[in-house]
Amino acid sequence: MLQGCHRLADFLEAVKKEFEMAATIFKTNCDNNKYGHSCFKYGNYKMVGRGGGKDIYQGLDYYLKGCEQEYIPACYNAGRLLQSEQLGSFHNPAKALHLLQHACDQKHAASCYQISGWFIKGVTGIPKDMTKAFEYSKKACDLGDCYSCSNLSQMYKKGEGVEKDAKLAEQYRRRAKELYEEMVEVRRNLELNQ
């Protein structure tokens, strides 16, 4: 039943373009049935004002509900939003990091990459730490993220967060290039099939 409600809302969204009705079903399926994917979709709707008014705080609330139901993309979106300055006093770097670490532990490559970026640069509430940046870049690269593999290549080349190793720097450079080319090919095929 939970997936059926979600699929109905997806149909109303994609085929009928009835966004208000889709939003109502996503919200109801989240609130009443605790279906994480519907929470995530309703959070997306609130972030952009689709099917009703825009409300980033309600969007965050629904991402958090989706994350509680282990819908990992919702954890990712909640974490990114909590790290952003647009939330004002709701900005919470510690919670953002916790949510993305959970998503990364569930093999969500974009979450691992995001964390590595925070540690590479150092952002509000998360100090620069190249050893941790290396750790999360490695996780993301192992999950197939080309940009993380590129970061690893540079870290090995410069000895940042890890000992210098020209051989490994080259190995990760090649891996990044290979993954990037695969990504471009997938995008090209998607465009051709539209």
Describe, in plain words, how this protein is organized in 3D.
The chain has 2 domains: 1-106, Serine Threonine Protein Phosphatase 5, Tetratricopeptide repeat, CATH 1.25.40; 107-193, Tetratricopeptide repeat domain (Serine Threonine Protein Phosphatase 5, Tetratricopeptide repeat), CATH 1.25.40.10. The two termini are 30 Å apart. It has helices at residues 2-16, 19-33, 36-48, 56-68, 72-83, 93-105, 109-121, 130-142, 146-158, 166-192. The radius of gyration is 19 Å and the shape is globular. With 194 residues, it is an all-alpha fold. Helix 2 packs across helix 3.
Draw up the topology in text.
Blueprint lengths: L1 H15 L2 H15 L2 H13 L7 H13 L3 H12 L9 H13 L3 H13 L8 H13 L3 H13 L7 H27 L2
Helix pairs in contact: 1-2, 2-3, 3-4, 4-5, 5-6, 6-7, 7-8, 8-9, 9-10
| Biggest pleated-sheet summary | none
Count of helical stretches: 10
**Which bin fits the share of residues in helices?**
over 70%
Mass-distribution shape: globular
Task: Please tell me how large the radius of gyration is.
Answer: 19 Å
Number of strands: 0
Report mean pLDDT, rounded to a whole number: 95
In percent, how much strand structure appears in the residues? under 5%
* Fourth-level CATH superfamily of the largest domain: Tetratricopeptide repeat domain
Unreliable stretches, pLDDT < 50, 5 or more residues?
none
Helix/strand/pairing category:
mainly alpha
The CATH topology assignment of the largest domain is Serine Threonine Protein Phosphatase 5, Tetratricopeptide repeat
Determine the N-to-C terminus distance.
30 Å
What is the succession of H and E elements? Answer: HHHHHHHHHH
Overall domain count: 2
Second CATH tier, the architecture of the largest domain: Alpha Horseshoe
Coiled coil: 162-193
GO cellular component, one term: mitochondrial intermembrane space
Organism: Pomacea canaliculata (Golden apple snail)
Keywords: Coiled coil, Repeat
